[in-house]
Design goal:
This protein is an all-alpha fold. The chain has two domains: about 80 residues, no CATH class; about 30 residues. The protein is about 75% helix and about 0% strand. α3 packs antiparallel against α4. The termini are far apart.
Length: about 120
């Protein structure tokens, strides 16, 4: 079920689509939750961060089990999540620099003070 709901509908085989329709027809609550999952999938795939608050409100109103907690956790850090879903760019270069500094810190752990660490970072 999870695979059927989280994959893009065009990647499902005809048998999988028929089985999914049958399951969703038997359980209206799951059908509503599946709609929310599809909607958030579109938001993620198409980078539509500005529509995220509307999706969170819809999930909060419907109270589908499992999705309500997820939506409310997104709401706690809404600005960061929205920025991540709308702004172009990648934090990869920053992460690389941070990882390099952490590696140097581990190599020097307990052997030297801040001045040596500073010199090692500036030299590399």
């Amino acid at each position: 079920m999870t695979g059927w709901l989280t994959r893009h509908p065009t990647t499902l085989t005809e048998e999988d689509r028929a089985a999914l329709r049958e399951v969703l027809a038997r359980c209206p609550e799951l059908d509503r939750a599946a709609g929310h999952v599809r909607n958030v999938g579109e938001i993620l795939a198409d980078r539509l961060g500005s529509t995220l608050p509307t999706w969170i409100d819809a999930v909060d109103a419907g109270q589908p089990p499992g999705l309500t907690g997820f939506a409310l956790h997104l709401f706690r850090d809404l600005d960061a999540v929205t920025a991540g879903l709308t702004l172009d760019g990648s934090p990869g270069s920053i992460e690389g620099a941070v990882n390099r500094i952490k590696k140097i810190e581990r190599q020097l752990y307990g052997r030297a003070g801040f001045e040596l660490l500073r010199k090692m970072i500036l030299l590399q």
